[in-house]
Design brief:
Largest sheet: 5 strands, antiparallel
Strand order of the largest sheet: 6-3-2-1-7
Structural class: alpha+beta
Helix content: 10-25%
Strand content: over 45%
Distance between the termini: 19 Å
Order of helices and strands: EEEEEEHE
Oligomer: single chain
Number of strands: 7
Length: 72
């Protein structure tokens, strides 16, 4: 699993993750990170077979979310 893009909507973080190569994506919403640096989404959407499909769903489900850099 690899985080492809991150978004922020107020205090909430949302991720687009790649699960298999560049062929299977999932959106993670309201992601919390625990003390072991594991990420836990409150909800998910997918699976998507392209990054474009995942981005379209992200904008539909979280229209106020803006993309942030990975370091944020």
């Amino acid at each position: 699993m690899e985080i492809i893009k991150q978004y922020r909507d107020g205090n909430e973080r949302h991720d687009i993750v790649c699960l298999a190569g560049e062929t299977l994506f999932e959106n993670w919403y309201s992601v919390l990170e625990d003390s072991c640096c594991l990420r836990h989404p409150s909800s998910t959407a997918g699976y998507f077979h392209s990054l474009d499909e995942a981005e379209t769903a992200m904008h539909k489900h979280r229209p106020a979310a803006v993309e942030i850099s990975e370091e944020a």
